[in-house]
Amino acid sequence: MARAAIKERELKRENLVDRYQPKREALKNRLKTHYARMADTSNPPSDKELEVIFADIEEDQLKLDSLPRNASPKRKRNRCQLTGRPRGVYRRFKLCRNMIRKLAMSGLIPGVLKSSW
Description:
This protein is mainly α and 117 residues long. It has helices at residues 4-38, 47-65, 97-106, and strands at residues 89-90, 95-96. The protein has two domains: 4-77; 79-117, CATH 4.10.830.10. The protein is 55% helix and 3% strand. A two-stranded antiparallel ribbon has the order 1-2. The radius of gyration is 23 Å and the shape is elongated.
């Protein structure tokens, strides 16, 4: 089993991701619009407009970089709900392969049968 501190750290990360998600999404959408304006071929921006776009991109990128690292959804780790094991976790059950086998053999997971051929 995983240590309690590791499980708590993962919960802390999940809370940070949830807290900063609206802000992160807003900044990413603003960056997408800046890049779309810059890459517009039907109405290409002038040199002065490009300087303004680059300044806006740099400002928004710095704001995005200033968010806490653990607020990124990429840093979340799937863990087994019972044991906290980080590997071999099935998303559908949120359990590791060992616990799925144990619970399925006990008949505690409905619809799961042991395969034999």
